[in-house]
Each structure stands twice: as C-alpha cells, then as structure tokens.
# Entry
Amino acid sequence: MDLAIQAIMIIGTFSLAHERVIELLRWGIGKLPSAIATLLDKVTKGPWAFATGTALSLVTNANALDAFHVDSDHQPLFFAHYLNGLPTDFRAVVGCCIMGLAVTLGSSFWHDLAKGLIEARERLRDASVPAKQETSVAVRMAPTGAGEPVLVSAKSATG
# Structure
C-alpha cells in the first residue's frame, strides 16, 4: 500500500504542476494572435484538456507506470526517467499518455485519494496490533527502612 500511496502522491504533484502550466498558458492567451489563442483555449479546458496533460507528460517524460515500479533501492523509477529527454520506448509513451489522462482529474482528486489511502493504512495497522491489556493488582503497603509504609503501584501493563 505504501508504494501505491507514493505513486499517487507523484501523480498528484505532477497534476499540480500541470495546473500551474495551464494557468500560465491561459494567462498568456490574451497576448497571442487570435488563431493561436482560440486553439490554446480549446486545449486547456473542457474535453481536450487531456491534450496539454499528455503533451507535458511526453515533454518531461513523466511516466505514470514508472511511479508504480521501484528500483533495487526501493525508489520509484519515475525519478530515474523524469526530465531525462523524451520517452524512448512504447511502454514509456503509454505511461506518459496515462499520466496525461490522470492529471486531468486534478490535483485535489489525487490528494484526496492519497489521504484516504493513508487513513485506510492507519486503520489496518491499528486493527492488526493487539491492544494492551491492563491488569489490576491489589494495593499494598510496603515497609521502608525508616519505618514508614509506602504505596506500591496498583497496575501493570501487559501485552
């Protein structure tokens, strides 16, 4: 489950970066010739928004499949390939296209999904750890060397 959470956080972070790029493009639309502005307007919102996500994923080699695979040091392969040129094989292109589609869901979706998985992981861990049981022990007075009694602990934790 930890790998899935880590991969979803990678996708969510890339989605957030994609949203900032879209905001930058939309900010600059008014300064462009009308034909280019109209095209950018179409590909930055609505059903064609995946085009900008896929283009950004391909240009940066942001492969969603690599987010779910780790190297020998248990680090996602995503970071080994990200920003290292265009994808070079079919699997990498498919992974970038998946990332392009995934970012259109928005960073808040991925953040909420990761948060839900983290909470589920914590509940599973809590359920698998046996609860500590407390046993009561009678309180007794223990004599001291000075002749005055002292109270001894009444409870002990086991488990």
The chain has a mean pLDDT of 81. The beta strands are 133-136, 141-142, 150-151, 155-158.
